[in-house]
Amino acid sequence: MELGETTVEAVIREVKEETGLDVAEPELIDVVDNITRDEDGEVKWHFVIVDYFVKVKGGELRPGDDAEELRWVPLAEVEKYDLTRTFRSFLQRNRALLEKLDSRLQPGCP
């Protein structure tokens, strides 16, 4: 996030920067703490990850300059990939909600 930027503004900007996509209507899904401790048990890093569901409004899918590849993966196939511990936990904790949101993207679904 940039100083003075809201989380909603940040997710819209970051998605554009990292994927080339224009998104709107962010819906908060979860907030995840990722805490890394050193060998003495002291906190070395503490990241707070704010997860949103967004609607794609346009743009061209392309990886940001810090990634080699970017692709759409069906929700049912996500766990086949090498996921971080925190993302795997997020996915398992929010699977029902993510499936419901994913169904909204399918034609004929409410």
SSE string, helices as H and strands as E: HEEH
Strand count, sense and barrel status of the largest sheet are: 2 strands, antiparallel
What's the structural domain tally?
1
Tally of separate helices: 2
Global morphology: globular
User: Average pLDDT across residues?
Assistant: 90
Q: What is the CATH T-level topology?
A: Nucleoside Triphosphate Pyrophosphohydrolase
CATH superfamily descriptor: Nucleoside Triphosphate Pyrophosphohydrolase
| CATH class group | Alpha Beta
Rounded Rg? 16 Å
CATH architecture: Alpha-Beta Complex
Model description:
The protein has a single domain, classed as Nucleoside Triphosphate Pyrophosphohydrolase (Alpha-Beta Complex), CATH 3.90.79. Helix content is 30%, strand content 31%. It has 2 helices and 2 strands; from the N terminus they run αββα. Strands 1-2 form a two-stranded antiparallel ribbon. The protein is globular and about 45 Å long. It starts with 6 loop residues before the first helix and ends in a 6-residue tail after the last helix.
Briefly say what this structure is.
With 110 residues, this protein is of the alpha+beta class. It has two helices and two strands. It has a single domain (7-104), classed as Alpha-Beta Complex (Nucleoside Triphosphate Pyrophosphohydrolase).
